[in-house]
Amino acid sequence: MSLGLTDFGLTLRGRSLVAAFNLRVANGEIVTLMGPSGCGKSSLLSAIAGTLQAPLAMVGDVQLKSASLVGVAPERRRVGRLFQDDFLFPHMSVGENLLFAIARGEHHARVAKMKAALRDIGLEGFEGRGPHTLSGGQRQRVSLMRSLLAEPQVMLLDEPFNKLDNALRGTMRSSTFDLLNQRGTPTLLVTHDVTDSPRGGRVLKIENGEVKDV
Amino acid sequence: MALPLFLIFVLPVLAVLLFMLQDTTSLAAWAALVVHTQLVKSLGLSLATGGAATIIAIFISILIVSTAFEGGRLPGVSRGVGPMLAVPHLAFAIGFSFVIMPSGLLARMVAPLFGWVVPPAWVTSHDPYGVALVVALAVKESGFLVFALLGLLAREDARQSFMSQRAVAQSLGHGSFSIWLSVFLPQLADLMLWPVVIVFFYATSVVDMALVLGPTEPPTFAMVVWSDLGSSNLDHNARGGAGAVLLTLVSGAFLFAAFTLLYFAKAAFMRFATRGPALGTLPLWLGLAKWRGLEMVYVAGVGVLMLLSFAPLWPFPELLPPRVSAAAWSQVMARPEASVASLVVAGLSSLIGIVALIGWFETRRERDDRLVVLVSLVFLALPSVLTGLGQYRLLLHLDLVATAPGLLLAHVLPSIAYMMILLRAPYRAFGEHWRVATQGLGTSRAAFLWRVKWPLLKGPIASAMAVGFAVSFAQYVPAQLVSAGRFTTLPIEAVTLASGGNRSLTAAFALLLMVPPLLVFGAAAWWARPRWRQA
């Protein structure tokens, strides 16, 4: 699978916001991108996902399995995303939120897959509940599982642990990284908190509009 | 300062709601209604035309707004929809009828293709199935629903939430079609309940548009009621009163059945909506085409009215009138009573409304709004034949029929109802921190209101006043009933003329009905323009 960024950077109204850099994220690897707020790290993820909004623009190339993603519609990129907020759809039950992401097919097989996924994240029997009845940590787990069920080829994490309290943060972090490792999904994690990054993983820093190795 | 709104709006509307039911106590009226020969056919026609127009308008508005959202054209649509709303239904219907009638603009445009020298044998306006009425209603109400949808999407928090949900759904492999169908529409549906209720009741009970375009043999049921209410026979009046109640009950029951059906269909729909990712995208071109089509109808309608108002003679199949004459306009100038009455009443409605509403907002807490909002929505949603009758009976009771205060009250009520709905949210959303910050500077309450709060709320106040003006300016049913022939306003004049033969004069009056609201909306937009350019 592996994600490749080649001469990849961001511009704001034509002026450089993040200078061009190169990066390759191998299968199962989790690379952390750090930087202060407003430095453009979330926008880098939007550029990879294809949802960058003007006046921001990207330069360079994004490849997945060495095929370029430039110009490909966001919904065809198979790039999974997780945000600070869980963005579970409020009008769908927990189960429906998961079914929304599971590929089309025979209904009972899809429901079985949804139930198994809930079991994996310790929420067995929660399928009929409304998202608002869950705790913040439970919602974020459902949100993560929802992205994984769509079988993404790359995962982009945008400070997904930010809103969780400290006790929950640690367990949520390790279970997220475990699930991603199992699947071998190349992952880019954006955060301003260095403790969020997986132990021994590569860490990059955005400083004054330039990406540097730490 | 909460008292004015209570005295000139809440109390009268509650009284109207009571008085409009007066005829339901008369058994004779119901007996006469039941044996009315046109009852079943007319009621069926009302439900069919109103229902069809509502469904078409819902589809068109969703298509326009969703494709505009996806295509980044929301600002353009939102600029265009204001003037569309400002055009009164009656003026729109008159312009539309001059476009589609056998000797109308449409026939003249295709005449060279078919070699027509006499108008084709079309039965376009007043067609027996009400097709012309359905199309005109669908086009006009699409604008209203587009406006309502834009209002939901324009709020910054809602827009942000939709953009994020869209990014999430895209990352799960859903194209724009699936996102709108499964994610956005179900969430918008609940919020669109009142606008749809208002459109449906309006469409099943419309009087002025039906007089211009609607079927006649049999007519829609609102027409049956209307001719009963206008009759000099008191028994017929009572039958009309019972008919207005029946029309409301039947429309309400129909709507209730539709919503019940939707409620039970929801589970099946959600199963469909969560059947998995789909890449299909919205047909952006189709939405754009629909929007351009809507604009074209308005442009053609206004264009034909302008040509006709300067053309005493316009033989078929000429595309342009052979000579220009200001004859119709000099006739308009010679009888200014209706124009003056309409302008004065609409101006006063808008002023009285804004003073009463701001007085209310400044002295009552937000939770007290609930009753007033409910009263406003109910008053707006109910058929105008019913509320108009209620107003008439109330004024009769107060001995104010055919008086200037009575006429004014009949126009003030619907104006305030609309202004309340539009102004409440932005006025109440005004941040408390501004007051706290200003108090710290030792500013008086009056200075705070005049120099901080109201300037900051200039936009919502200006558009509420424009809407109040336009709503008052377009009233036909209550005006006709409570003026009892003593006063004439522009809508009354225009309806009378539309049924006569003087097309040039009719067109001039239809334009007269259209121009002041447009000017007022334009003035409001200009007055509320941002003082500094946005970065």
| Shape estimate of chain A | globular
Radius of gyration of chain A equals 17 Å
Q: Name the average pLDDT of chain A.
A: 91
Structural class by sheet pairing and helices of chain B: mainly alpha
Task: Supply the CATH superfamily name of the domain at 3-78 and 152-213 in chain A.
Answer: P-loop containing nucleotide triphosphate hydrolases
What's the number of domains of chain B? Answer: 1
Order of helices and strands of chain B: HHHHHHHHHHHHHHHHHHHHHHHHH
| CATH fold naming of chain B | MetI-like fold
The CATH superfamily of chain B turns out to be: MetI-like
Which pair of protein chains has the largest interface, and what are the residue counts? A-B, 34 and 27 residues
Number of helices of chain A: 5
Q: What multimeric state do the chains show?
A: heterodimer
What is the ordering of alpha helices and beta strands of chain A? EEEHEEEHHHEHEEE
Number of helices of chain B: 25
What kind of sheet is the major sheet of chain A? 6 strands, mixed
State the low-pLDDT regions of chain B, or none.
none
- Please state the second-level CATH architecture of the domain at 3-78 and 152-213 in chain A: 3-Layer(aba) Sandwich
CATH class value of the domain at 3-78 and 152-213 in chain A: Alpha Beta
**Beta-strand residue fraction of chain B:** under 5%
